[in-house]
Specification:
binds NADPH dihydro-nicotinamide-adenine-dinucleotide phosphate, oxidoreductase, ProC C-terminal domain-like fold, binds (2S)-3,4-dihydro-2H-pyrrole-2-carboxylic acid, 2 domains, Rossmann fold, alpha/beta
Length: 274
Amino acid sequence: MTKDIRTVAFIGAGNMSRSIIAGLVAGGYPAERIIASNPSQGKLDALAADYGIRTGNDNLAAVAEADVVVMAVKPQLMADVCAPIAALDLAGKLVISIAAGVTCERLSQYLGGHQALVRTMPNTPSMLGLGMTGLYASDAVGEADRAFAGHLMAAVGEILWLDSEAGIDQVIACAGSSPAYFFLFMEAMEQGAAALGVKPEDARLMIQQAAIGAAQMVRHNPQLSLAELRAQVTSKGGTTHEAVQTLEQQGLRDSVQDAMQAAVRRAQEMAKEF
Ligand SMILES: NC(=O)C1=CN([C@@H]2O[C@H](COP(=O)(O)OP(=O)(O)OC[C@H]3O[C@@H](n4cnc5c(N)ncnc54)[C@H](OP(=O)(O)O)[C@@H]3O)[C@@H](O)[C@H]2O)C=CC1
Ligand SMILES: O=C(O)[C@@H]1CCC=N1
């Protein structure tokens, strides 16, 4: 955890803010230095109860008090939410955006020309300290602010600094959106298990353990390629070979590649829309 403790205001307290806040507090970031601002009260009450952070409905009060402002609303709301914030004195404040498809240039326009911007692309496993965040700092971001943004997101998982802003869209495809691909795969396995007559709770346990185990094997065996790990499971003439061949023949790799390209395409479209 960073020793550089600053007051951080999350503007928008939805799924992603909750994930990051959960990870920060679990990692020891002082809860009293975290503020969440959101229109609906229920999410705020839950955040205050679960993590002891400060909450409110007044974005401007939160921003005024903060050293660091995390913009965490949906991309399509960013312009409207930023407009009143732009009227505040933002000098000396670092603004971190987690929104997909809102460029630094656009965000700077929305914030009245504010320059100290870091664009990030986190993901929901941040909640467990198992996040993956890509970061891109605009030229105006000084060393201390850059380091703070890195430490903040490193508190909830791994980080990757990007040389170009276009890299953020690659992070979306590989890590921001990708937990959903794995959930979808596991959902499909649940359905497959049901078709085999497996009880739902048994299916969930087996799928969960296989997924956690596979991910940990990747993590703990950096010397082995993914294909080598797969080969270790695949006995010659055995069951895995039949299953994997079925997935291959039915085009799993092409589907995944198309899906990742679709994510990037959508991020690029959003950058024009928002
Ligand atoms: N979910 C994910 O996995 C990831 C999301 N992101 C990005 O994070 C951002 C947020 O996404 P996510 O958390 O999923 O979305 P959510 O819809 O869960 O959260 C957005 C929050 O913004 C709040 N909000 C709406 N209007 C305002 C306002 N005027 N002022 C303050 N808050 C407001 C909403 O409040 P309410 O609904 O209570 O009205 C809601 O709680 C998006 O830009 C997305 O691109 C990035 C990486 C991963
Ligand atoms: O679906 C989205 O647009 C956001 C960005 C990455 C994950 N969720």
